[in-house]
Amino acid sequence: MKDQAEKLRDMVNNQKGLSRIIAVTSGKGGVGKTNIAVNLSLGLCQQGYRVALIDVDMGLANADIILGIAPKYNLGHVFRGERLLKDIIVEGPLGIKLIAGGSGVTDLANLTGWRLDVFIKSLEELNKEFDFIILDTGAGIHRNVLSFVLATHEILVVTTPEPTAVTDVYGLLKVLHQHKPEAKVRLVVNMVKNPNEAEMVAEKLNAVLKEFVQWEIDYAGYILYESQISKAVSDQQPVILAFPSSMASRSFKRLANTISGENAQSESTGIKVFFSKVYEFLHI
Ligand SMILES: Nc1ncnc2c1ncn2[C@@H]1O[C@H](COP(=O)(O)OP(=O)(O)OP(=O)(O)O)[C@@H](O)[C@H]1O
Ligand SMILES: [Mg+2]
What we know:
This protein has 284 residues and is of the alpha/beta class. The protein has a single domain (4-283), classed as Rossmann fold (3-Layer(aba) Sandwich). It is built from 13 helices and 8 strands. It has helices spanning 4-12, 33-46, 63-67, 75-79, 85-88, 113-129, 143-150, 163-179, 195-213, 227-234, 239-242, 247-261, 270-283, and strands spanning 20-26, 51-55, 90-91, 97-100, 132-139, 154-159, 184-192, 218-224. An 8-stranded mixed beta sheet has the order 3-4-2-5-1-6-7-8, with helices on both faces. The chain is globular, with a radius of gyration of 18 Å. The termini are far apart. Bound molecules: adenosine-5'-triphosphate and magnesium ion (MG).
């Protein structure tokens, strides 16, 4: 008989055995993407899923710091042929796997010939190994960030209720819609005082999107503002592990439930197609 984790895996993986890839991004920086990517990933691990977190934020890669682990190598080493993909994957709490990207990910654009072939081949293994691949990206609409976001079918867009963050997320969403209207985009409102505040942000944003872009996005939930998040970050521990019964941890668990509960599997094209697309975008 199949155990719970196996059943869940069957549900999330489609017949082709492709991982669900979800990019976490934002218009404005510092709105909580990395915290959300890390705690959402761990929330999915707690549900029995196999999760890889890829840090593709070239500016300030710091998912490793929040996870309290220190990877020696990043994707740059793989792209330069100095390490194999399997050698740079490090394990963190709850069995989560971290693939550090950092500034090295720009080297993807320079990959050619057999080195590109080797890399793409090694990605096949990842599809079999993981139910979810979560990407922690940078903020904004710079080409380096957009290449990763537009290559992903599922996009989690983060904002706070601050007018500047909402304005920037609207700008990002306009660009996403222009380039990828078929994307499954979900909104998370972070650092809110209460659920109402988050719902109002989501409603207002969708009202503007509807009027000016004829588009609406899904509201995936909120994360409350909580000082324990900063405390956990200072201690280099994810809040979901450091303060499991805190309100923030409950928000993250709810978000993980929402994400895993929705079935986006038929749309996943897998990690190989994903990286091929990133490669193409970087060359445009
Ligand atoms: N819900 C929250 N409550 C309180 N503080 C938070 C919350 N979410 C994030 N923070 C704090 O906000 C700061 C920025 O968070 P984080 O690094 O996750 O943002 P980011 O969007 O990844 O930033 P960057 O754009 O620089 O990558 C951190 O110091 C973090 O502790
Ligand atoms: Mg970040």
